[in-house]
Amino acid sequence: MRVVELDGFGGPEVLGIGRAPVPVPGEGEVLIRVVAAGFNRADLVQREGGYPPPPGITDVLGLECSGTVVALGPGARRFGVGDAVCALLAGGGYAEYAAVPEAQVLPVPGGVDLVEAAGLPEVACTLLSNFAHPELPPAGSSLLVHGGSGGLGGFAVQLGAALGWRVFATAGSEGGVEHSLAAGAEAASNYREEDFVEFVRERTGGRGVDLVLDVVGGSYLQRNLAALAVGGRLAMVAALGGATAEIDLRVLMRRRLTVHGSTLRARPVHGPGSKEETVRAVERTVWPLIESGALRPLAVHRVPFARVRELHERHGDRTVPPGKSVLVLGE
Known about the structure:
With 331 residues, the protein is α/β, with parallel strands linked by helices. Helix content is 28%, strand content 26%. It has 10 helices and 15 strands.
């Protein structure tokens, strides 16, 4: 099969198309013939050497894919050969075939084509595992999303709006602001031109928001806390702006704030806090919103498989269009 190979670690030039044996599905796994693989910023970090796969997992990039089930491993029984599916992966999506634990596989939701579905599992699982901590906030809650023009941020805006929340977003360009508004944000701000703490305070009457979804990290920590309402929560899913910061614990205690961080890749397949638990919660909560039309993936940027290096280059220099990018194997 064709795979995207890494010739060491570094820039997009280390990516190339190579050949590898088709994986054999093990106990409880299914083999998927991949139609498309979702792109995530974590792919860039792994390519640069900063995000190694867990022990025993392929070093082929790709944390999500869509395609058709072509074989079942021993004990796999939910899906059948020929089923259209998408899947959350620990790695291996940038390839023509992927062997995946059946617990991490989802049916393609109605109203979404197979290529669009490739960009859903990672973002949906990441967001739901952070939003529902331990339960989803009620309708009428407020959310600030950083990076509303990206694949994760744009979907976060859509999901929050579909759940009946007041959603605010930041982006680094006017195009990103427009994308955030189109996704369902009540208001969006260009963070290069406006302080997001003041932006939030103005639109919430000084109260702040109940939840902040952050991909920036250290350099935003103090301002994120300032943007929260009393009893609010900061959910951190990346640290693009630095991994360390100082915090005044008295602020957390006085205002009853919570700082929560998480990743998906290192979680166990089964058990409490597992990928299986998150995937099934997504199927129960997010898939019905998609199928009803309350939540609809926007601006899927489709890139032919052979142009993987170009995709990484454009994401690295931030010239890719707003929205989610996917690599299409048949193109």
